[in-house]
Fold these 4 entries.
Entry 1:
Amino acid sequence: MINELNSLNIVNVNTPDEIAAHTTLSAASKASILIEALPYIQKFAGKTMVIKYGGNAMISEELKTKVMQDIALMKYIGIKPVIAPIGAGKGETTYNINADYVAAEVAGALQAEKMLMLTNTKGIYTSLDDPKSFLSSIPKADATAMIENGTIQGGIIPKVEAVLHALECGTHRVSIIDGREPHALLLELFTNKGIGTEII
């Protein structure tokens, strides 16, 4: 993964078709995107972001590339991205670890500005059957209460528990985001509402 990141060209256009694909946005649209992102670039420059890399973002080759592009861009604009260990050893050796908890420990130890958890879910809902019940931000006390009263259920519970652990250890904020979304990291960091659930 490190080799992928080191050898990555964020945009590599060589043919007229490739150039055209990257010039479909008008100059004004490109400027608007940069203007929207600028306050967040300024806010996060020099800050440490711990990334829990997992879910479909680790399986799909296309999503892997987009995650690496996001991380490269974060690095180039002054953010300090840290990819938490995922339990991979030498060769094909893998280890059965709780990657969410490991990421939480890393984020806490580094006193990270933010931990970004790439998952296969958009975030937290007050009702799984109601897409409109999606929560873009909640205080950690509410997240704890939602586990206790059964609102948060199933596989998301250990993720939220890891989030709470990261916050207790000194991480400033944590976002659970959908790694199936291309460029999920950039969309969470550099847009007004983000795309996941931020727990603070």
Entry 2:
Amino acid sequence: MLIELTKKLISFKTYNDNELHECALFIKDYLENQGFKAEIKEYVKGYPVVISSSGKGEPLMLNGHFDVVPPGEGWSSDPFVPKVVDDKIYGRGATDMKAGLAVLMETYVSMADKLDYPLLFTAVPDEETGGKRGSKFLAEEFSPFFVIIGEPTCSERINIGEKGLLQIKIKERGKSAHGSTPSLGDNSILKLIDDILILEKEINDFSVSIPRELEDAVNNVKEIDEKIFDDVIKITFNPGVIKGGTKVNVVPDYAEVEIDMRIPPGITSREVLEKIRVKGEIEIINSSEPNYTSLPFFLGLKPFITPYATDGRYFRLKGIPTIVYGPGELNKLHSPDEYVRISDINMTFEKLKKILRNLVPKFL
């Protein structure tokens, strides 16, 4: 049933609004057909969140998302017609995170009456666009004693934390003139280039000390992909969008750049922002602090830190212990011919049930 459920979830094109609602209704109906009460709630109109509780009391929350990024080009087959080849299920969202959602759904159904605490199942429609219409509200409404998010980690590892986020826009204004007489103008693009170079140097000069309790988790990143190790332990700097000018023969009087920075544990996004000394106007687009959950056990699973953000930040920043654990490899995220291994799905399902049996709320 787990594999068929994964395939069914993949078949929904949940990068468009209509199929977000169809998928949410399917999840709700599925849980109700298994004997659980479920509801669809829209904290923000047009964004359906599925919620189901197995009982009263302080719960453990199982959280996942059913939205996906658009498929893009380069697929060998229809990304929304799941294809099984040997041990792999291909399709958009197979790894991120339709398989993980299927595991959470089946875990909820199979374990709800076998634990000394209630489970709270939640499925959100907007993780890929920031989680502010789903998990952000869930973190404000509910107070679970623990949260498990089904994003891909591979069945052998758990994500216990993530880098913070600082996305800013730098704006420069100048004075327009004819391109043949630039001395009569003030080129905003050249001013913006200076800002970018200054900021890059400032970021590279930062010294960050990773908390000692995270050293093992950080070092485990090397086993996943040694190429991204530096991206985990340092502040990363990526000018992603730049705009400016109207014509090639006109001195531009306005230019802007959007810059994405990821902040490792050991320093805060606020500290980074306070040390930025560019001349242009700074606008904050998005910001969150590094966050992690430090726990001493988990059945031999290897902890690690991710360079990107998950909805886990909303719960951790409220002081709720949160881990990310689900089937799928990180290098398959958002890629053409995305796939998840069937063996990984089954292994994650079994280990997740074991995690729930071993969690004792009063000892966390």
Entry 3:
Amino acid sequence: MIGQALAAVDAERIKLSSTRAPYWCLAMVVVFGLGVAVLLGWLLSGGYADTASVDTRTIDYLVGVNQFGVAVFAIMAVLGVTTEYRFGTIRPTFAAVPRRPLVILAKTVVFGGLTFVVAAIVGLLGVVLGQALTGNGIALGGPDTVRQLWGTPVFAMLCALIGLSVGALVRHSAGAVAIVLGWMFAFERILSVLPRIGENITPFLPFLNGWNFLSGGDSTFHWNAYGSLAYFAAVTALLLGTAILVTSARDA
């Protein structure tokens, strides 16, 4: 069982590294993640000097990762599933690994792990470069900065796993990407501003909970920042579990 699981993970790693799409996706994350941080650091050069201000500014340096980057990671994960259905390679995959949950779990490990590592590295470099360009030194020990540095890759990883889950459920690249991006950037935001019901729905919208965690928490939600992260993780796990069950039950 363990040997088969490790073989499935290795197979997914090989498939991921053998196509150009992931490299383009990761390149975009690096360019935008570092580009936004460098641009902001340059614009704010000399604009503040106190440590508290440096600490609370961290989330701004990470906009390229926790706004644009998470969308790219989610798309990359979607394509990691849907392209196999599109080109018919999912059948040989299931033939090689008859236990279908192992295939989805292997993709979870590969895409989730890659997303976490890249987001962590780009996020750290972005914060360091942004702070350095302001000319006020580098401070990475503040509470907001620490939460952002580990929270951003966790949030990005969960977004990628949601993309993976939607891809496994929908099986169609364009449809899955539209659902994920619409859900992430439009659907939840529209619901949150609806008259009368918006304020009651907002605390239960997954992506808004994720961003609430990154921002440090807001009174709009029923729990603190870490409660929002736990809720977002629970929704991700539920969606991933559903994707595993559906993949196991229906034909390839």
Entry 4:
Amino acid sequence: MSGRFFWFCVTLIGYVYAGYPALLTVLARLRPQPLFAPPADLPIVTLLIAAYNEQNVIAAKLSNSLALDYPRDRLQILVAADGSDDATPDIVADFADCGVELSYRPERAGKLAAITRALALARGEIIVLSDANNLYDAGALRALVAPFADPSVGATTGAKVIAKGDGALGDSEGLYWKYESYIKRQETRLSSCTGAVGEIMAVRRGLLDQPLLPEARLMADDLALAMHVLKQGYRVVYIPNARSIERVSASAQDEQERRARIVAQRFVLMRHSHRMLPLLNPLLVWQIVSHKYLRPFVPLAMIGALLANLAAVIRPAAQGGMLRLASPFNWVMLALQAVFYALAWMGGRNECRGIWGKALYIPAFLVNGNRAALVGLYRFLTGRHTSLWNRVQRRERESSASEQRRVNPSYRVLSGKENNP
């Protein structure tokens, strides 16, 4: 029995991390590569920036937004700063002369609620959702709006890129996002993305005017909006050349907290699948189950594989004494798991340097991410999950003028206050 259970757990882990991407790659090659020509007339775009207590980065974000390669008369920049009790609203007000608008009320109801309220002020045909702690490439908006010439496209999402120079943690998180971007690229080619990157996502205004299901308030905004678009029969398209550059989390603990919140909200989606999934599209349902539903169960499969392996090793000795050993295969599997977790422990103890540090941080990143998934599952089961978003601390240097110019050569200081905090 332990042998079958072991292989079930290993198969689940292998399918989630390797099998599903491999199947996607094969099936996607049967479809033509999508080509998106830029529209003849650029649509009016509202860049809606969620900014809860972002006084350290909001000025740099607004300067970056004002320097984007998009006609200024067709771009509205709107900041949703609900609940902020720092200087964020005041800093945004300093940019009023540049045309930046503010949506603010003191009460805090969560990121999705702040976005929904700010939509009443939005004038764009396309709503681009962004966060305050990331910077766009100059051509990101043009790339995001191009696919909307296809009437089947309801939303687009870009690539999240981790800024260089953040050590092994940044390298491992950057590798993770490259992996996720590959999956999104194949999903787009096959049919549609099953999710979006919340800090660089564009949605047709008409779809946002449709009321979200009440359950969406308990989910992350990017997941809730992506499911909302898919449920209405539209596609979500990944655009790799629309890039959002972001600093890595300040610590592995901050990243773990972020992942725990995401996993808890993903279980909310599972609980309300009958209302939120596009059930009339079996191909898309398979993609969502493979990409979104199975991954939170990987930590349980990892624990199950280890326990089953231990049982297979211990049982022979318990039944026939120490002279009766388990099969060499079981010992090899147990040794491989022990080495993997030992490397993860070494990588998680401190910020290792050099190529070995990067190698050690990959298992550490995987183990920490799956440990966060267990925390998210616990919070979901105990009802402790929340839609409220707490700002994750990012590495410093994220708002410096030098970094702005590296992302966008046309960057210039647009406000004398707080532009280089």
